[in-house]
């Protein structure tokens, strides 16, 4: 029988023999890589993670930025797969390559996105192989169940396009947060087993400690998995500082707008020769409401006392003394130089417009359309040889006849529709 001390020694892996004649039995190696013991966030045998590289407030700020960005990405993914997409609040932590290998299903798809405008950095999205198969099948019009086989170039190209649109929406959200344009490069997707891959070949920052942001992603009833996003620590801190600095400046109260100056009174014209009828009115600018207070009978102006003297007649002397000029308007009659905007037409000459040539139209009931098959002939509302319609941005502008230019069709314009 073993004593309690010997049992404790065996459990702790110590040598219980006095002379070191035998060693304690070695612990059996774990059969599954997911059972590898983890110390301070890193697998035993790997480099320990320095948790001081990122404090809690920085993690919260980075998580908030990721949350807003992925919210826009979820909306974009919904439009691509036509399934309800839910991406939960992210969990931010520090990790290294061994931590990712031992805590994520393999093989998986790495999607690398580089920021080209507004930000200087790289981030990597990691999706499970099955999740990529489901998403790409939905994008191609399937029901998400055609996931047999391995991921090929078609699936990698499709998921790259999905991530391009998702991260494009995320870049738009970032642009709003930092008040400057943000753009990304086309994503690059690759399927990796990760065991025999050198992380520095994928991205230089993966060879050290980096920021790992984990999201729970749900796509309808087909996907309930984890999506990971990896950031270099320096880039994550720079993004946090940029967002917080901009938010801090945005929270400052805006200075009160300066009061608009009161409109200056129009300068009175120089007085003309004294008018005998106006000698009794030295203050012509006084309000009209004060006019009844004037002692008309004492001013020697009998004509002002007549009953026909109304307000328009009282204003006439003042109107006659004002410097009034007739309004001048630009004439619109003339040659082409006088056309509205003609002098600035060069500004919009490079704007592309869509030109469409319409051979004809017809209306069919749904039953006839359902009967369409290769070889079906559809009769149009145009007679053979009749001019075709030329539309610019959907607006009918001209008529023309179909011609052949080498091996391509063309249209010779025969009539401009006014």
How would you describe this structure to a colleague?
With 418 residues, the protein is α+β, with helices and mostly antiparallel strands. Helices cover 28% and strands 20% of the residues. A hairpin with a 3-residue loop joins strand 5 and strand 6 (121-128). Helix 2 (56-81) packs across helix 5, helix 2 packs across helix 7 and helix 4 packs across helix 5. The radius of gyration is 40 Å and the shape is extended. The N and C termini lie far apart (109 Å). 18% of the residues are buried.
Tally of extended strands? 14
Task: List low-confidence stretches.
Answer: 16-46, 250-262, 276-307, 335-339
The helix count comes to 9
Helix and strand element order: HEEHEEHEEHHEEHEEHHEHEEE
Structural class: alpha+beta
Q: So what's the CATH class of the domain at 51-248?
A: Alpha Beta
How widely separated are the two ends? 109 Å
The largest sheet is: 8 strands, antiparallel
Q: Superfamily at the CATH H level of the domain at 51-248? A: CheC-like
| Second-tier CATH architecture of the domain at 51-248 | 3-Layer(aba) Sandwich
Strand percentage lies at: 15-25%
Radius of gyration: 40 Å
Shape: extended
CATH topology descriptor of the domain at 51-248: Chemotaxis protein chec
Helix content: 25-40%
């Amino acid at each position: 029988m073993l004593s309690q001390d010997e049992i404790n020694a065996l459990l702790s892996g110590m040598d219980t023999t006095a002379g070191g004649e035998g060693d304690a039995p070695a612990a059996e190696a774990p059969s599954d890589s997911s059972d590898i013991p983890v110390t301070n966030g890193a697998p035993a045998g790997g480099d320990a993670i320095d948790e001081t590289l990122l404090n809690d407030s920085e993690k919260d700020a980075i998580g908030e930025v990721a949350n807003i960005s992925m919210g826009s990405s979820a909306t974009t993914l919904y439009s691509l797969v036509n399934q309800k997409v839910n991406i939960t609040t992210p969990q931010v932590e520090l990790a290294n390559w061994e931590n990712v290998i031992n805590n994520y299903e393999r093989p998986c798809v790495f999607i690398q996105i580089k920021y080209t405008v507004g930000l200087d950095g790289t981030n990597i999205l990691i999706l499970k192989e099955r999740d990529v198969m489901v998403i790409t099948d939905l994008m191609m019009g399937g029901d998400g169940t055609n996931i047999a086989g391995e991921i090929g170039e078609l699936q990698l190209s499709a998921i790259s396009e999905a991530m391009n649109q998702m991260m494009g929406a995320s870049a738009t959200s970032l642009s709003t947060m930092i008040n400057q344009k943000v753009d990304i490069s086309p994503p690059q997707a690759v399927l990796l087993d990760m065991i025999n891959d050198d992380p520095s070949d994928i991205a230089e920052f993966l060879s050290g400690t980096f920021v790992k942001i984990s999201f729970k992603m749900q796509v309808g009833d087909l996907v309930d998995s984890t999506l990971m996003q990896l950031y270099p620590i320096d880039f994550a801190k720079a993004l946090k500082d940029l967002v917080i600095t901009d938010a801090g400046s945005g929270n400052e109260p805006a200075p009160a707008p300066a009061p608009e100056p009161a409109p200056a009174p129009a300068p009175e014209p120089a007085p003309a020769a004294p008018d005998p009828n106006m000698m009794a009115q030295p203050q012509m600018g006084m309000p009209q409401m004060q006019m009844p207070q004037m002692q008309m009978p004492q001013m020697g102006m009998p004509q002002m006392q007549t009953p026909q003297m109304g307000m328009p007649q009282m204003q006439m002397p003042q109107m006659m003394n004002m410097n009034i000029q007739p309004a001048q308007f630009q004439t619109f009659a003339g040659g082409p130089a006088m056309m509205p905007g003609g002098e600035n037409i060069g500004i919009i000459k490079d704007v592309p417009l869509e030109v469409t040539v319409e051979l004809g139209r017809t209306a069919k009931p749904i039953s006839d359309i359902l009967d369409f098959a290769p070889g079906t002939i559809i009769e149009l509302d145009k007679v053979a040889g009749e001019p075709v319609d030329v539309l610019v941005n959907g607006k009918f502008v001209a008529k023309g006849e179909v011609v052949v230019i080498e091996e391509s069709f063309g249209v010779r314009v025969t009539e401009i529709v006014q």
